[in-house]
Amino acid sequence: MDAAPIALLVVDVQRAFDLWEAEGQRRNNPDAVARIVDLLAAFRRSQRPILHIRHASQRPSSYFSPDAAGYPVKDEAREIAGEPVIVKRVNSAFIGTDLEAQLRAANIRSLVICGATTNHCVETTTRMAGNLGFDAWLVRDATWTFDRIGPDGERHTAEEIHAMTLSNLHREFARVVRTSEVIERLGTEP
């Protein structure tokens, strides 16, 4: 990671998830957004590319609909001038967008991926990054998910889902790392 061109992908850090929590949905990794803020600061200090991904649902009733209160990015993870925002309509940030073309044009070979949710858009984007030949680094403490009910009616905790997703992706599609490891490799400790 030290010498290779690398970029940070910040996936779907949108207010919709705050609304989910306000309705009582339980999540894991309560400090994930703080770790995303740490990653943003480290990439900005090192002057490395950051790409922000936003989900724009095509369902008018979705919190992620462009007209909904949940669509805007959380203030802590807001882009600054020069940091592109890529809007997607499906789980993968590579489908229906120019993300891959932007990365290839900039000669980016490695991606540090963070955001929400671990088992949906983060996982799908990470899988595709690996399949497309990028060296993907999934940041375990800068991602989160929510409890879910399975098809058999069994409740699965956010912690279980998060751990299983990381296990599925590790070594096959990505390296699973912590924020501190990424910052150390970037050499941008404050």
UniProtKB/TrEMBL annotation:
Residue intervals of the Isochorismatase-like domain: 7-179
Record-linked CDD domains: nicotinamidase_related
GO molecular-function term, one example from the UniProt record: hydrolase activity
Keywords: Hydrolase
SUPFAM superfamilies for this protein: Isochorismatase-like hydrolases
Segments forming a coiled coil: none
Protein name: Nicotinamidase-related amidase
Cross-referenced InterPro entries: Isochorismatase-like_dom, Isochorismatase-like_hydrls, Isochorismatase-like_sf
Keyword Signal: no
Keyword Hydrolase: yes
